[in-house]
Specification:
alpha+beta; six-stranded mixed sheet; two-stranded parallel ribbon; 42% helix
Length: 420
C-alpha cells in the first residue's frame, strides 16, 4: 500500500501538478464505505474503489468543520500563520493555488468564487453501491419539479469522466453533482433510470450528443417510459425520398426532401462550445458567482487555460467534464428555450397553480450579450415566484409529498434526507 500524506498544493509546481492529477484520478473517500464494508464485505469496498478510480488510490479529505472545529478556531489559526493567506488556503482550507499566467480568470475572481464553492455537501444518493451523487442542498418539491439533468458522457475508459449536474429550474443553480471516470454507458443508463424511478420522475434528461451520448440516447428511448424524460428539439433534416420499390433505384440519383425530426440531446459543436466556455462561463464567474456553488465544479474552473489559439480548455493535469455537464444544461436553458418549454412545466419549490413557466419565459428573450444572459438567469421571475408562493393556498413541503408516496424506496430516501 502506498500513502501520500504531504504534498504542495500548487498547480504550477511539477510535484503539485502530479499530486493533483493523482487526487482527481483517485476514488473519493466517503463514510458510507463503513456501512458498505459491514453490510457487504471487503469485496464491495474494493469494487467501489475500482469503479471510482483509474489508479486504485483512495483520496481522503476532511474540512476543519468536519473535524469538529469552528470559525473561532480558524480565526485563531490564521493569526498563528501571521495572516499569510497563501498558507491559510493551503494548510487550513485545503485549497490549491490556482492562478497562473495562462489562467482564464483573475485570482480575485476565483477568490470570490471560492466563498460560494467552499461548502460541504449536505447529503448524497448512492447507486449500485458504488456511484455517488452529491447533494449541494436539500431539494424541495422533489417528485413534482422538472429538474434539469445534464450529462457529459465519456466512454468509461479512465481518461475523461462521465459527469452529471442536476440543475434547479427555479434559479438555474446546481443542486446535485456526480462524476466518474470508469462508468460505462450501460451503467449510466441504469443510474439515470433509477434517478427517474426513485427520486425525480419528472426530470428532463439532457445528454451531450457525442459518440457515447448517441448510444446512451438509443438505450434510453427504447422504452416509452423513459423517452418522455429525454430532451429533444425539432430539427429540419434532409432525408432520402423513396416513393416505391424500383429495380433501377440504385442507378438513379436519389431524391431528398426536408423533414422535421426529433433530435435528442445537445450537440457540442465548435460554435456552441465557444458560447458555453466563453459567454456563459464568463457571465457566471463575473456576474453570478453564487451559481458556482460546489467545490468540484470550482476545482475544474481553476485548471482552465487559454491556448495560443484562444480556445478555453482544461490544463494537462485538469478536467472539465463536470463543468461541461453544467454548461450543457445552461446552454439548453438559455438557447433552447422553445424546445425546453415542452418539458419544463413545474419549477417552483412548492406546488402552485399560479406560477407557470410561460410567465418566466416572458422575461427570457432577446439574448444578445453576456449582460442579457445575466438578466435571464437572474430573471425578473423572482417577483412572479414570490407572488405565486404568497397567493398559493396549497404550499406543500417535500416531506408531505413523500408521505403521499407508497414506494418504499422513496420512504427510505426521506429517512436519509431527514437525517441530514
Amino acid at each position: 500500500m502506498r500513502n501520500y500524506t504531504k504534498i504542495k498544493s500548487n498547480l504550477d509546481n511539477p510535484s503539485g501538478a502530479f499530486a493533483y492529477n493523482l487526487i482527481t484520478s483517485a476514488a473519493k473517500w466517503d463514510e458510507m464505505l463503513y456501512d458498505l464494508y459491514f453490510e457487504k464485505g471487503e469485496d464491495a469496498v474494493r469494487e467501489y474503489v475500482e469503479s471510482n478510480s483509474d489508479n486504485n488510490f483512495m483520496y481522503i479529505e476532511y474540512s476543519y468543520k468536519q473535524l469538529g472545529k469552528d470559525d473561532k478556531w480558524l480565526a485563531k489559526m490564521i493569526k498563528e500563520l501571521n495572516n499569510d493567506m497563501v498558507l491559510v488556503k493551503r494548510e487550513l482550507l485545503l485549497q490549491w493555488t490556482y492562478s497562473s499566467s495562462d489562467s482564464v480568470f483573475k485570482e480575485e475572481e476565483l477568490d470570490l468564487l471560492s466563498r460560494y464553492a467552499d461548502k460541504d455537501y449536505v447529503g448524497k444518493l448512492i447507486f449500485k453501491d458504488k456511484y455517488i451523487m452529491y447533494m449541494i442542498k436539500k431539494p424541495s418539491n422533489l417528485y413534482k419539479k422538472n429538474w434539469i439533468v445534464s450529462i457529459d458522457i465519456a466512454g468509461g475508459l479512465g481518461k475523461d469522466k462521465t459527469a452529471i449536474t442536476v440543475i434547479d429550474p427555479l434559479d438555474n443553480k446546481p443542486i446535485m453533482v456526480m462524476y466518474n471516470n470508469t462508468m460505462t454507458v450501460p451503467d449510466l443508463v441504469e443510474v439515470v433510470k433509477e434517478l427517474i424511478d426513485t427520486y425525480m420522475p419528472n426530470a428532463v434528461i439532457i445528454p451531450e450528443r457525442n459518440n457515447m451520448g448517441t448510444t446512451f440516447i438509443e438505450l434510453m428511448i427504447k422504452s416509452p417510459k423513459y423517452e418522455r424524460n429525454m430532451f429533444y428539439s425539432i430539427k429540419t433534416r434532409k432525408t432520402e425520398k423513396i416513393v416505391q420499390e424500383d429495380k433501377n433505384l440504385f442507378r438513379k440519383k436519389p431524391k431528398y426532401v426536408n423533414r422535421e425530426t426529433r433530435v435528442f440531446g445537445i450537440d457540442t459543436t465548435t460554435k456552441n462550445r465557444k458560447i458555453m466556455t466563453e459567454d456563459i462561463l464568463s457571465m457566471l464567474v463575473k456576474e453570478r458567482p453564487d451559481h458556482i456553488n460546489n467545490r468540484d465544479i470550482f476545482a475544474e474552473i481553476k485548471t482552465l487555460e487559454k491556448t495560443k489559439t484562444g480556445k478555453i480548455e482544461h490544463s494537462s493535469n485538469g478536467h472539465d467534464d463536470l463543468l461541461m455537464s453544467y454548461l450543457i444544461g445552461m446552454y439548453t436553458i438559455l438557447y433552447e428555450q422553445e424546445a425546453l418549454k415542452r418539458f419544463v412545466k413545474v419549477v417552483e419549490d412548492y406546488v402552485s397553480p399560479i406560477h407557470k413557466l410561460e410567465e418566466v419565459n416572458k422575461t427570457n428573450s432577446n439574448i444578445i450579450s453576456i449582460g442579457n444572459i445575466s438578466k435571464l438567469i437572474e430573471g425578473s421571475s423572482n417577483s412572479i415566484i414570490d407572488e405565486a408562493l404568497r397567493n398559493s393556498m396549497n404550499k406543500r413541503t417535500l416531506e408531505q409529498d413523500v408521505l403521499e408516496s407508497t414506494k418504499k424506496s422513496r420512504t427510505r430516501f426521506l429517512d436519509k434526507l431527514n437525517s441530514i
